[in-house]
Amino acid sequence: MRNIPSFITGLFMAQLDKTYDPKNYEAKWYKFWTDKGYFHADSSSKKPPYTIIIPPPNVTDRLHMGHGLNNTIQDILIRWKRMSGFEACWLPGTDHAGIATQMMVEKSLAKEGLTKEQLGREKFTQRLHDWKERNGNIIIDQLKRLGSSADWEREAYTMDPKLSLAVRKIFVMLYEEGSIYRGERLVNWDPTLLTAISDDEIENEEKSGSLWVFKYPVVGTTEFISIATTRPETMLGDTGVAVHPEDERYKKFIGKKVKLPLVGREIPIIADEYVKSEFGTGAVKMTPAHDFNDFEVGKRHNLAMINIFHPNATLNENVPEKYRGLDRFVARKQILKDLKELDLFESEKGHKLSVPISDRSKDVIEPRLSKQWYVRMKGLAAPAVEAAKTNELSFYPDSWKKTYLYWLENVQDWCISRQLWWGHRIPIWYCNDCSGVTTGMTDPTECKECKSKNIHQDEDVLDTWFSSWLWPVSPFGWPEETADLKKFYPSNVLVTGADIIYLWVARMVMAGFKTMGTLPFQDVYFNSIICDKQGRKFSKTLGNGIDPLEMIDLYGADAVRFTCISLAPLGGRVRMSTEDFASGSRFINKIWNASRFMLSHANPDQPIASIQVDKLALPEQWLLSELDETIKKVGKHLENYRINDAVDALYHFLWGSFCDWGLECAKLSFSNPQTKDQTISVLVYVLETSLRLASPFIPFISEEIWHNLPKHPDIKKSESLCISEYPTGLNLNVPAGARDWTLVQECISAVRALRAQAEIEPSKMLSIHIKSTQNHEVLASAAPWFVALAKAKVGALNAKNKYLVQVGKGYEVFMAVDAIDNEKQLKRLNSEHQRVSKIILGLEKKLGDANFVDRAPEDVILSTKAQLENMNYQRKSLEVSLENFKA
Known about the structure:
There is one protein chain. The protein is built from 28 helices and 29 strands. Helices cover 43% and strands 17% of the residues. The two termini are 69 Å apart. Helix 11 (378-389) crosses helix 15. By secondary structure, it is α/β, with parallel strands linked by helices.
């Protein structure tokens, strides 16, 4: 019966286990929440909706720390809003991951000695579906271990029938209005996977390469133009040479031709401002079919487009016979050798260059001219631009708006076709008897132009992003007008990484306007990038990643959630190591042990008394006022997406205010029958409210402790913490004077600090004197607290004593010292005075710098000013102590 919730048994369990072992509680409570259906949102509810759509992980993914942070942020927001009275819908799901999934299945086929071609498209596609059924939910199960409170009853998959219907609808709609077309353009081509790929599937790696210079003979002269290139093999496809129109070295050649070495083709010399005269030789070879910049220059000057590569990056029939069939890098060596033999080779020097690498195959990407399907983006982008400019769409942090707008205002047409077998097959049928092209919401049986039944479907599939850009609408039933769509569209916030701001975020905004006429979400929160302690992004190549599941096994999900969030500022970079999770675990254990201590002093057979604020001691009134302030801070930070600040406020209250002060002060009351009941009542009230406040952040431990708390007459008890009312303020009238306890705290802390500086053992009773310009009555009444919490008796100054002094705002604490090495203390005080003075000088210089004051964020300015104030108090303390010791 130990692990059965108290509201079920009707019993109050006054004792928690001696130690907190997450394995004993996490699976239990997650099952309880899901069995009760707490995470499911009701589309017929009268509550206001609050919606988040999960960035769907690939079905091939395994949970990594980026997922951990991203989903913890979403879970915090959705749990907070669920507890705040909203019909909270967090829509989960997965992406079919065209390339990644096909690679997985092809690898398994290779072990059988088979290829997809041998198997055939139909059987291979069935293998893909089978693989997904076996492996596609692994990351979903891992997200559940993290505590994700998603609406699993609405879990979607981009290849689900209803989502596939939405994909087809948007394709047909855009095609019929002329926004989808087929054209021959350059694409990022993967020579291993034999498909076009998107920008997000490329990693640009800096590598050491070479810059080669060789000569092109100018036709009709004995002169040459020197060309610099990092890809000599592409010269076989050159159709021009470009120079800057103002480059005096080459003006005389503009309009002439060069004879392309090894090929013999005559190609024009053109002038274009794209050329940078200072790079290389100032003359650039133009290969429009194999370079994105050359392609644009080639279009401007009507240069020929010659494709010299087969799909696998071997050279094709458009090059001289001796190079045909060679791999591009083998051809490179042969071309350089041949140029040297022709005395056209000038030089080679080392050169750092950014090489585009396929994220999946790890092969070098080859820009390739090919016929692909495209979406015209300019018209779709217009309302998405306007939404950001008018702040209808908000970004957190706001600095990302500039990136979003830059991409949309310079948007290029989107290549949506992929040469794969896994994905949504392009719903286009070609007629074998005429040039007719047919599409529609159902598969056609004949050509719409000539009515011939001799038709065949396009072999390609759609880019995975073409289904993902419909994610805000398709899982809710679009194109049908469903109850879910009416209730939960648009969503409130999108939590994602900034690296897909245009690949996904901007495209979803466009799709939202196109399908529903409105934004798909109001806010976009860009979570932090997780790095190692050296500031390097986590990557498989570096082997510097942290497995969140290993951390959950070691420390529990709450510790992982707390650690991730506490380290992650809005849109910043997180430097993380495995040691950080031990710190998170200490906080979780601190809450557990504090709760055990408090419950050990409560009588399970005696009801908790209602709080009578006027009968409380000042520390108890202060604790309630601190809780009220923390509630307001946490709420404000959550509203502004300052989630790590919310965690920080919660941490400081629970560890500092509740554990270090609240429970320590309570020890005096526990032994007094006249005060104990009210003290227990306050502690239970504060802990229960704190657990509700903490529940979105650390849901497992808070739920377990909450069910073991006695019922408090001033709090309405729910069936579960996760559906309890989120605190927005206290229903108690705490007097404003409760804040006076802060002065006592500061003085007690000053005594403790002085004791540590003087290296006086903690058990020794000290004599102290306090000078204060405020709250004399409070300090006078606090004598028992100084004895209990600082081992110090308050008295008058004694001229015979030497004192160490701590100066604060409105007070000075004098601590008598005897049997102390005066010379050692003077040396320490002088050294510390020099150190603090140096810090003050640096802070004053920083605050006096107009550039710093104008450019630094307001919170940084305030923090710097607070640091300066603190340092000035420290210096004053040292100066008073020095005067005292010299006297």
